[in-house]
Design goal:
Elements: H1 2-12, H2 15-27, H3 31-42, E1 45-46, H4 47-54, H5 58-70, E2 74-78, E3 81-84, H6 86-100, H7 103-116, E4 132-136, E5 139-148, H8 151-163, E6 177-181, E7 192-199, E8 211-215, E9 218-226, H9 227-230, H10 234-239, H11 243-253, E10 258-259, E11 265-268, E12 279-287
Antiparallel strand pairs: 1-3, 2-3, 4-9, 5-7, 5-8, 6-7, 6-11, 9-12, 10-12, 11-12
């Protein structure tokens, strides 16, 4: 009877009300936003705390908070400090109840039990790394560098300021973006450098803070890295480097290739999609 009553109630709702329900569902239809709601359900939190707890990039987290705030699921109680609203509590509770009572939840629980008692645990499985051999052709690039405590973010803002008005960010296959530490981090110093390259036509005019360079190309071993996940991993904290870089170096040591003298690179795969995890292709220079 309850299901029948719910169906009748939905049929009697106005289009505006149905749209409002759909908007609520859209607002929580992303795992990162659900993570934010769950964290705020425990207690109100600062932006910096949410940044650490979620592992989301600054721009992406800002976008997620904006979307949740527009639907009044969260509120900013002071500068940079957020809390769950009553509507947020109701919506989160409804989503959790719906999931707990679903067939999907029961199937996921079965999978977790099977994995728990499987003889092959995640800790003992050897990670296989996917490596592609890529020949980068010579190219003209615009070089943009920053030296600070957060040089990747600072240099990226300069890249956007230069590239976006020129339409260079619309086609990342035509105008790929590469980056690398320059200078590298060093013990006892909080500041280091990061340099971005974006491929350009040779006739594009430079501006202050942007340098035109000629890259001679080279042969590379390439693997993909989920920077959003690896940047908050225990491996990075313990070893001071991304696990994907370490795995790529291990692959190289038994590959039969020799180390190239051209620069190591990190290629941004999806920098224009802040709602997604940030992906990088790691380029290790090699020679036959």
């Amino acid at each position: 009877m309850n299901n029948r009553r719910d169906e009748e109630n939905l049929q009697n709702l106005s289009w505006r009300s149905l749209q409002a329900i759909a908007d609520y569902l859209l607002a929580v239809s992303h795992p990162k936003r659900l993570m934010v709601l769950s964290l705020l359900a425990e207690e109100s939190r600062d932006f910096a705390d949410l940044l650490v707890k979620t592992g989301i990039r600054k721009t992406a987290l800002s976008n997620q908070l904006t979307q949740l705030g527009e639907k009044r699921l969260i509120q900013r109680v002071s500068h940079g400090h957020y809390a769950l609203t009553q509507d947020g509590k109701h919506v989160l509770r409804a989503v959790l109840d719906m999931y707990r009572n679903s067939t999907l939840s029961k199937e996921e629980e079965k999978k977790r039990i099977l994995e728990r008692y499987s003889h092959r645990s995640d800790e003992t499985m050897t990670k296989e790394i996917q490596v592609e051999i890529v020949q980068l052709e010579p190219m003209t690039v615009a070089s943009i560098q920053a030296i600070s405590k957060t040089p990747e973010d600072d240099a990226w803002k300069k890249v956007v300021a230069f590239a976006e008005p020129r339409g260079l960010l619309k086609d990342l296959k035509k105008n790929p973006i590469f980056g690398f530490n320059n200078p590298n981090p060093s013990a006892g110093k909080e500041e280091y450098g990061y340099e971005f390259w974006i491929r350009i036509n040779p006739d594009i005019k430079m501006e202050e803070g942007v340098t035109k360079k000629e890259f001679s190309g080279g042969l590379y071993a390439v693997t993909r890295c989920n920077l959003t996940k690896e940047s908050t991993s225990a491996f990075l904290h313990e070893h001071g480097q991304l696990e994907s870089w370490a795995n790529l170096v291990k692959w190289f040591e038994s590959s039969g290739y020799k180390k190239g003298k051209h620069v190591c690179l990190e290629k941004s795969v999806n920098p224009n999609k802040p709602d997604e995890d940030l992906l990088l292709d790691l380029y290790l220079p090699i020679v036959k």
